[in-house]
Design goal:
Elements lengths: L8 E3 L5 H12 L4 E3 L4 H11 L2 E2 L7 H8 L6 E4 L15 H29 L3 E6 L12 H21 L4 E8 L5 H7 L2 H10 L8 H12 L10 E4 L7
Parallel strand pairs: 1-2, 1-4, 2-3, 4-5, 5-6, 6-7
């Protein structure tokens, strides 16, 4: 029995580009997938396209997460739900925005992990969790005080969860992508004064695609990664190696 035959995999943030592509690749690999996200119209289209199930809940509410996940049989979890927040220095940051970024990116992922892992332990089949972090947790990026801090917290959630859940046969890892140039990203990363200097520092010299992020996520959930746990995997064209 392969990993993808052991039970459903929940993907949060599935109405976004990386999350939706992860759902597609998991379905193609034979997994049963439950997609969650904020945009129900996008989720409906994704379900029609792939055959995935959908589940709506608010990552910012523990009660909402608990009601959605408590008693739900799960083998895997992809924490892809996230909020970009603002571009600001530590001197200028809006603390209310900082709080929202931390609430969704770190606290929300921890809540999903808390209740999903309870299901995995209850079922006794092991499991796998992949957190979608960022290169912003590994190096200092200007303007990313809120986002980078939230993803650094998420990386620590990954390591501690790997330590605590390992005895139950549950693996926990993070992927740390560079920018995927979507319309949401382009307003900042597409600026001439930002894009050019950044890509000049990256050995591969280009942005990532959704598919290039989703594929390592699927791998980390698969049998091929059965001895990998507690890692933060940069998917950044070599940027953080320099």
């Amino acid at each position: 029995m392969s990993a993808f035959d052991k039970g459903p995999i929940l993907v949060t943030g599935a109405s976004g580009g990386i999350g939706a592509e992860t759902v597609r690749q998991l379905i193609a690999a034979g997994a049963e997938v439950i997609a969650s996200g904020r945009n129900e119209e996008v989720l409906t289209r994704l379900a029609e396209e792939t055959g995935c199930r959908t589940l709506a809940f608010d990552l910012a509410s523990e009660e909402d997460v608990r009601k959605a996940l408590e008693g739900l049989d799960l083998w895997g979890l992809v924490n892809c739900g996230g909020f970009g927040g603002e571009i600001a220095t530590p001197m200028e940051t809006d603390i209310s925005v900082f709080d929202k970024v931390m609430t969704i990116n770190a606290r929300g992922a921890l809540l999903a992990t808390k209740y999903a892992s309870q299901s995995m332990v209850r079922l006794g089949k092991g499991g796998a969790i992949v957190n979608v972090s960022s290169q912003a947790s590994l190096v200092a990026l200007k303007g990313h005080i809120s986002y980078g801090s939230s993803k650094a917290a998420l990386d620590n959630i990954t390591r501690v969860s790997a330590l605590e859940l390992g005895p139950h046969g549950i693996r926990v890892n993070s992927v740390n992508p560079t920018v995927v140039m979507t319309p949401m990203s382009a307003w900042y990363w597409g600026r001439e004064d930002i894009e050019g200097p950044f890509l000049e520092q990256m050995p591969l010299g280009r942005w990532a695609t959704e598919a290039e992020i989703a594929a390592p996520i699927v791998f980390l959930l698969s049998d091929g990664a059965s001895m990998i746990s507690g890692v933060t995997l940069p998917i950044d064209g070599g940027f953080t190696a320099c």
